[in-house]
Amino acid sequence: VLHATRPLHTTQQCLAPVPPLPEKGGEVRHGLIPEEFFQFLYPKTGVTGPYMLGTGLLLYLLSKEIYVINHETVASFCILSVIIYAVKKYGADVAAFADKLNEEKVAKALAVKNEAIKDLETAIEQEKKEQWRVEGRSYLFDAKRNNIAMLLEANYRERLLTVYSEVKKRLDYQVAMQNLKRRKEQDHMIQWVENSVVQSITPQQQKESIAKCILDLKALSKSVQAAV
Amino acid sequence: VCAAVLLKDMKLMDVKLGQLPSWVAMRDFTPGGIVGAMRRGYDRYYNKYINVKKGGLAGLSMVLAGYVVVSYIWSYSHI
């Protein structure tokens, strides 16, 4: 629950993007005194003012023994000279090394940022491709609909064929039954007629018919001989 | 018509020499105020001399020189 009584984003301040670090630090002369001090004294005393001030201050401290010269002075003098010599000789190299380390850090961060940007860009392109694909929906559905229609048609025709073949089988059966019955009746009748005829042929009739056949054959043979 | 800035809001460099005691008296001397002042001073020094891309030895050496001077002042009576 957001309590709307507290106003948000009222100031112009914005933390992002973070302003870059300044290139160089404040100017410091001789490693000890900031440049602002010299600029502060310049209008009144010119260029040599601060140095005169420094010399006067030093002589005052020495003469009034506010700064006491003892063994520590000698030690500090030796240590400071060694330090200054080391800084003057190796300062540039150390600075270059530190700069290189910094560069690597910055390069790594930049690499991460670029990676992230690239990934997001590829994601955007893929999203656009998906959006383009969505336009093809209608074709996809038409194809699917065609497929289904074809399936239905094929199924319907299969069933039609089944129905046809079943009905034909039954009708064939009926036809075959009728044929069989008629043939059996015919055979039976023929058999019966033959049997009765054979039974009715008496031996006398047989002789008569054979003699008639012979006479017929003779007549036929005479006519055939004439034709040839 | 110039808008007069309140004494207590003026920066130290703009305060005239005669107004200095009253300016100092107007500062915030509560513990929170003192801590805030130290934090501000630290932040100013840090952002000017150390939190930069190419810092030098000066940022560190000024702190050490200040430390040397302060420790000399504290041990002056023992010399």
UniProtKB/TrEMBL annotation, chain A:
Transmembrane segments: none annotated. InterPro entries: ATP_synth_Bsub_B/MI25 (IPR008688), ATP_synth_F0_suB (IPR013837). F-type ATPases have 2 components, CF(1) - the catalytic core - and CF(0) - the membrane proton channel. CF(1) and CF(0) have multiple subunits. Subunit b, of the mitochondrial membrane ATP synthase complex (F(1)F(0) ATP synthase or Complex V) that produces ATP from ADP in the presence of a proton gradient across the membrane which is generated by electron transport complexes of the respiratory chain. ATP synthase complex consist of a soluble F(1) head domain - the catalytic core - and a membrane F(1) domain - the membrane proton channel. These two domains are linked by a central stalk rotating inside the F(1) region and a stationary peripheral stalk. It is found in: Mitochondrion; Mitochondrion inner membrane. One of its GO terms (molecular function) is proton-transporting ATP synthase activity, rotational mechanism. It comes from Hemiprocne comata. This is ATP synthase subunit b. PANTHER family: ATP SYNTHASE F(0) COMPLEX SUBUNIT B1, MITOCHONDRIAL, MITOCHONDRIAL ATP SYNTHASE B CHAIN. GO terms for cellular component: mitochondrial inner membrane; proton-transporting ATP synthase complex. Signal peptide: none annotated. Keywords: CF(0), Hydrogen ion transport, Ion transport, Membrane, Mitochondrion, Mitochondrion inner membrane, Transport.
From TrEMBL, chain B:
PANTHER family: ATP SYNTHASE F CHAIN, MITOCHONDRIAL-RELATED, ATP SYNTHASE SUBUNIT F, MITOCHONDRIAL. It is a single-pass membrane protein. Belongs to the ATPase F chain family. The chain crosses the membrane at residues 55-74. Subunit f, of the mitochondrial membrane ATP synthase complex (F(1)F(0) ATP synthase or Complex V) that produces ATP from ADP in the presence of a proton gradient across the membrane which is generated by electron transport complexes of the respiratory chain. ATP synthase complex consist of a soluble F(1) head domain - the catalytic core - and a membrane F(1) domain - the membrane proton channel. These two domains are linked by a central stalk rotating inside the F(1) region and a stationary peripheral stalk. One of its GO terms (molecular function) is proton-transporting ATP synthase activity, rotational mechanism. This is ATP synthase F(0) complex subunit f, mitochondrial. Its main location: mitochondrion. It comes from Hemiprocne comata. Keywords: Acetylation, ATP synthesis, CF(0), Hydrogen ion transport, Ion transport, Membrane, Mitochondrion, Mitochondrion inner membrane, Phosphoprotein, Transmembrane, Transmembrane helix, Transport. It is found in: Mitochondrion inner membrane. One of its GO terms (cellular component) is mitochondrial inner membrane. It holds the Pfam family WRW. The lineage of its organism: Eukaryota, Metazoa, Chordata, Craniata, Vertebrata. Component of the ATP synthase complex composed at least of ATP5F1A/subunit alpha, ATP5F1B/subunit beta, ATP5MC1/subunit c (homooctomer), MT-ATP6/subunit a, MT-ATP8/subunit 8, ATP5ME/subunit e, ATP5MF/subunit f, ATP5MG/subunit g, ATP5MK/subunit k, ATP5MJ/subunit j, ATP5F1C/subunit gamma, ATP5F1D/subunit delta, ATP5F1E/subunit epsilon, ATP5PF/subunit F6, ATP5PB/subunit b, ATP5PD/subunit d, ATP5PO/subunit OSCP.
